[in-house]
Amino acid sequence: MASGQAFQVQGYELAADRLYHEASHFWVEPVGPERARIGLDPLGRETSGDVIVVSFEPLGTTVAAGAPFGHIEAAKFVGPLSSPVSGTIVDHNADVLGSPGLLNEDPMRNWLVELELDGTAQLEALLSGEQQVSEWFAAEIKRFRTQGAIAE
Amino acid sequence: MGALRVIDAGTVPALRSQALWHGIASAMGADDQPVLSFCRPAQAYVGIGYHRRLDEVDLEACRAMGLPVFRRQIGGGPVYLDSDQLFFQVTLPLRRAPAGVARLYETLLAPAVTAFRALGLDARLDGLNDVAISERKVSGTGAGQIGDAATVVGNVIFRFPHERMAQVLALPSEETRAEYLRLMRRHVSSLEQEGAGHVTHEAAKAALRDAYAAALGLEPCASELRAAEVAQVERWERRIADPEWLAGPDLPRRAARQVKVQANVWVIDGAHDGLRVMASIAHGVVQRAEVWAPHFNGAAARIEEALTGADADVETLATALAPFGDDGDRVLCALEPGLTLR
What we know:
Radius of gyration of chain B: 21 Å
Oligomer: heterodimer
Strand content of chain B: 25-35%
Helix content of chain A: 10-25%
Number of strands of chain A: 11
Largest sheet of chain B: 6 strands, mixed
Distance between the termini of chain A: 22 Å
Distance between the termini of chain B: 39 Å
Strand order of the largest sheet of chain A: 3-4-5-11-10-7
Structural class of chain B: alpha+beta
Shape of chain A: globular
Largest interface: A-B, 27 and 29 residues
């Protein structure tokens, strides 16, 4: 369950106070004037499989948009956690590092890293608002179902 | 029909046997053709998955056995690798890879099963990603996204030295090592052990090539590494040989040691509040349990009996251990961190 106001799209719960990155299925939650937390949205989590390990680049690492801020492992598959925005890693979620299964239980509540953003203008490219996000998310559910990546 | 580039690197130094496919993946562009690659390590070594702590490997034992240790950028635990294994890798641009980890394995390991069957073995996909005959694994696999490519790797095990595999792991006790070895002998097999010792490396490669080409609807064509791929392979050789890379990402130590044998079989060795518990889990059931707790005054044997045959989930084990009060709670605390298979 998300901490902000929640809404559902075909059974998937999303938070209205987040911004969403279309290609990577990460959410971004502004938590200060220049800071944001990043997490996986439910489709990003589901297509990743049951997460068993996450690792993060060290605090202080600068990541460009599209570059990895860490890696995730599920079923012996390791993939990069590609940042939806650019910035400097200022915090890790120690709870998720210690108990990666939290992501399987509730990816919207369990953030991964907190970034000091390289400017907030980049947030304008992300999806926001319940209607815009719902339309995009519904189309993504359909796409992943067509591809057999998620169950009907 | 598109092409499936087939790169057979032959027998290569141990380091190259890892760098090869990392490099091919790193060099792959969005419009490149998929690649099926093969290699065989000239020397034995130990490989460790990206997200495993290096202290899971007994580095001193490896040194004594002359085995280098290399970290790969895909998942899974430490494995003993040698020239009695043929490595195969299928690598394709991310945009052409099936979406979702389960679908990726399903799509890209089905041809491996087909190839094993073509070689006369009654193989099937066990769980998400083990190729097995009955309950015996004959091919280990792993996968990852490297650069803009997805790669699924596997091996064909011609012969397997179970004892050497058990020796290279850092384990909490010799009892755990003995139990691991017992389970390895039962659940990890080889072509030789399955009566297919006559199968040659060339025959295995041909079967894999034909199966992957048919499944992907591509025409197989023999190929060599391109200049960009050679450069990436060499870059990966430097990275994999770098002690900093070998150290791996900073990961928390787990409360219980878990040693996986195959998809659904593992050993837990956990300690809590002055007691130690070892349990073997196979297909969701505790097969065997041993409890060391001097202060239990004889209750250990009864606890072992209560655990054996129980479903390996926290709720069932809590019920089984409830009659033992605080002692049962302590046993559960020792086991619980190892119940979820990594």
